[in-house]
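In line with agreed milestones, the collection of sequences with tokenised folds has grown. One record among many is set out beneath this paragraph:
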Amino acid sequence: MKIYTRTGDDGTTGLFGGRRVSKADARVEAYGSVDELNAALGVALASDQSSDLAWLRDLLLSIQRDLFVLGADLATPRGEESSYLPRIEDAHVQALERAIDSAEARLTPLRNFILPGGPAPAAQLHLARTICRRAERAGVHLSATQDVGPIPIRYLNRLADLLFVLARAAARAQGAPEVEWAPRKEQA
């Protein structure tokens, strides 16, 4: 099978079910943002191979698998479901909530805003969090005109929260301090 088909040369792409839409369509933006998020998690996985973060690698791989399901979910208009195509479910959201609770138990309570950064895995997770928030906004935008159901948006919202907590946990696991944000005082 060839990787190129030439069918998208006119600026369109196919959705599950066969319908063609513009590559600028809100649905394509939503699942494309999820794809970008998945790639960002791959970069986070590649950024550190230390044994300190083995627990994190397993979790991120699981999330990457979920993101393929979410991308397919967003690429499939409601009513065009297939028996072989899963949808993201509330159980996926609940798994994220359990992961947040588990990761937060390793951390001191947050008292101030922190600057995104730290060692490479933490910084990559902060970047993935911002991509996740963009994917969430794209999903909300799509849901304003098309039925996507409530769970994909809820999943992305919870995932962004988890990625923030994981970034903090990754920095802590590597002994890096968090840099708190403080507003600059005006010079006299």
In short: Residues 20-107+114-173 form a domain with the Hypothetical Protein Ta1238; Chain: A; fold (CATH 1.20.1200.10). The chain has one domain: 20-107+114-173. The helical segments are 26-46, 54-75, 90-104, 120-143, 151-173.
